[in-house]
Structures are given as structure tokens and as C-alpha cells.
């Protein structure tokens, strides 16, 4: 029976440590790390994510501001707003909550963020540094997964890792972080043939596809480490992962639950990187 990778517990431990770090920074510098979250429109899921970020930031003593803008904001106005925060020394991290309304080009928005303040790690400069093996700002979800593996002493070097999903936010950076730790990495996606067969070769399987309970026992090798990034709603509006937890748990060595696995780590890494950005900008 698999051991649970308890992201909630690790997030609590890390957040307590970060709270102490922020207090020490305040004592020494008389200032604290600052994070601004720009939220455009009324997407209900985004509202919840942003609220959670705000609560966690204030718990840690990080100065945070949510700048809410209407759905009707123009691209030019949003770019000008980002430039304002690029220049504002109170804020060491800038996060623009995605998705954005269809009339705004996400790529342009990401490019406008000063790479030093890009706590999401989405700017092409930060992605490039990750791909060349010299990362600075790292996308928070895959970064949190690496911290979770490390906390449970799960070695990655030489292992077969299969990442299902190739998004810029999770799948691609996840694959590169695993590669950097010397895993042999396969990226699978919606066009992959024989997906269960490929997934079954994984010592470390990361599911980041957004299809509820896709990964069942036919996808998992005995003794695998199974990481579930999925946040899907079932017919009863219950939060479910990409992994059929009950079906997979008896075969895996380690498994993340949903909720309480990857999710709490993502927010923690965002604030971790806000502190990192503060240090980089102060030095
Ligand atoms: N929307 C969903 N996840 C994320 C994330 O990690 N960062 C941003 N900026 N938007 C998101």
C-alpha cells in the first residue's frame, strides 16, 4: 500500500520556516518581500486561487496586494500596469493570474513582466534558464513537486520518469526539472499512442492532463511514485485528480492525494520565490 506524499504537511513546515525568514528580513532590512497579484475579470476559480494566495502571503508576513481589473481592460492598459509594478520597489514579485480574457495576448503579458519579478517562472528568459540547467525563477507547481520528492528522499537520478501533459505551466517545466536531476524523461500527451503502456514504464509518473481519474491501475507499474497534478470536478462537483487514487494506491510506493498533495505546494513555492526574488533584488 502506497505511502501518502503529504503536500499539506510539507507546505505547513515550509511556510513556518519562511515566516521566520521574513521576520528576520524585516528585522535586518526594515522592509519585507512584496507580491502583487493582478486579477483580470471574474473567473470564479481564479478568484479562489487568488484569495488563497493572499491569505498565505499575509500569514507569512509577506506584503501582498491584489490588483483587480475589469474584464474590459485593454491589452495596452494591462501592459502599462505591469510596467508600473516593474518599477515599484515595494513589489519583488508580480503574478498575473491566468487565464486572461481572449482579447489579451498572454504571451505579450508574460514578456512584459520583469524576469527578476517573474515569480511564476513563465517568462521566456526564465524558461530558457531552466532548459539550459541554470534556473532562477521556476514554475511553482513542478518546483513544489521536486521539493515533495526530496522531502520523502525519493531519488530521481537514473529513474524512468513519465510526465503526462505538455503545458508550459506544468508538463514542460516538470520534464526539465526531472531531467536536471538526471531522470530519463518521457513527455506523453493527448496524441501519444499506447499511453497506458508508456506510463507503465515509469518509476515516477506525473499526471498533469486535466482529465479526471484518467490514470488507473492499467497505467501504473508496481512500486511507482505517482504524482497527481489534476484538479477536476466530477459530476457531483467534487474535486478529483487525474489519478484514480483508490485504484492506484495498492500498487504504488508513493502517491499524492487530491486535495492535499501538489496543490498546497504550489502556493508555498510562489511565496518561496517571492522571498528569493526579494533577495536577488536586494543583493
Ligand atoms: N492559473 C492557474 N495556475 C496558475 C499559475 O500557476 N500562475 C498563474 N499566473 N496563473 C495560473
Structural overview:
GO terms for molecular function: methenyltetrahydrofolate cyclohydrolase activity; methylenetetrahydrofolate dehydrogenase (NADP+) activity. Homodimer. It catalyses: (6R)-5,10-methenyltetrahydrofolate + H2O = (6R)-10-formyltetrahydrofolate + H(+); (6R)-5,10-methylene-5,6,7,8-tetrahydrofolate + NADP(+) = (6R)-5,10-methenyltetrahydrofolate + NADPH. With 283 residues, this protein is α/β, with parallel strands linked by helices. The protein folds into 2 domains: 30-114, 3-Layer(aba) Sandwich (Rossmann fold); 140-262, NAD(P)-binding Rossmann-like Domain (Rossmann fold, 3-Layer(aba) Sandwich), CATH 3.40.50. The chain has 10 helices and 11 strands. The chain has a 6-stranded parallel sheet. The protein has a 3-stranded parallel sheet with strand order 3-2-4, sandwiched between helices. Strands 9-10 form a two-stranded antiparallel ribbon. α1 (7-29) runs parallel beside α10 (262-282), α6 packs across α7 (171-180) and α6 (140-151) packs across α10.
Q: What order do the helices and strands follow?
A: EHEHEHEHHHEHEHEEEEHEH
Question: What is the CATH architecture assignment of the largest domain?
Answer: 3-Layer(aba) Sandwich
Amount of beta strand: 15-25%
Q: List the ions, cofactors and other small molecules found in this model.
A: guanine
Overall tally of structural domains: 2
CATH fold descriptor of the largest domain: Rossmann fold
Mean pLDDT: 97
Summarize the amount of helix as a percent range: 40-55%
Structural class: alpha/beta
Tell the overall outline.
globular
- Total number of helical segments? 10
N-to-C span: 47 Å
The low-pLDDT segments are none
Q: Let me know the CATH homologous superfamily of the largest domain.
A: NAD(P)-binding Rossmann-like Domain
Amino acid at each position: 500500500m502506497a505511502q501518502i506524499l503529504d503536500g499539506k504537511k510539507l507546505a505547513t513546515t515550509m511556510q513556518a520556516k519562511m515566516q521566520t525568514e521574513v521576520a528576520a528580513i524585516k528585522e535586518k532590512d526594515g522592509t519585507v518581500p512584496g507580491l502583487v497579484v493582478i486579477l483580470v475579470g471574474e473567473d470564479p476559480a481564479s478568484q479562489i486561487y487568488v484569495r488563497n494566495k493572499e491569505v498565505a502571503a499575509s500569514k507569512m508576513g509577506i506584503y501582498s496586494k491584489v490588483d483587480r481589473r475589469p474584464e474590459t481592460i485593454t491589452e495596452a492598459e494591462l501592459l502599462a500596469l505591469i510596467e508600473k509594478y516593474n518599477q515599484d520597489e515595494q513589489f519583488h514579485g508580480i503574478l498575473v493570474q491566468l487565464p486572461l480574457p481572449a482579447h489579451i495576448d498572454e504571451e505579450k503579458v508574460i514578456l512584459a513582466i520583469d524576469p527578476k519579478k517573474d515569480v511564476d517562472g513563465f517568462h521566456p528568459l526564465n524558461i530558457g534558464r531552466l532548459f539550459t540547467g541554470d534556473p532562477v525563477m521556476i514554475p511553482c507547481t513542478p518546483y513544489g513537486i521536486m521539493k515533495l520528492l526530496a522531502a520523502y528522499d525519493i531519488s530521481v537520478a537514473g529513474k524512468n520518469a513519465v510526465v503526462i501533459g505538455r503545458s508550459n505551466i506544468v508538463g514542460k517545466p516538470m520534464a526539465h526539472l526531472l531531467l536536471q536531476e538526471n531522470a530519463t524523461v518521457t513527455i506523453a500527451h493527448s496524441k501519444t499512442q499506447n499511453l497506458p503502456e508508456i506510463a507503465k514504464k515509469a518509476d515516477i509518473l506525473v499526471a498533469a492532463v486535466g482529465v479526471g481519474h484518467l490514470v488507473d491501475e492499467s497505467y501504473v507499474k508496481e512500486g511507482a511514485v505517482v504524482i497527481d497534478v489534476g484538479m477536476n470536478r466530477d459530476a457531483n462537483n467534487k474535486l478529483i485528480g487525474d489519478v484514480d487514487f483508490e485504484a492506484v494506491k495498492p500498487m504504488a510506493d508513493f502517491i499524492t492525494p487530491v486535495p492535499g498533495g501538489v496543490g498546497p505546494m504550489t502556493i508555498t513555492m510562489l511565496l518561496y520565490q517571492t522571498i528569493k526574488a526579494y533577495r536577488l533584488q536586494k543583493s
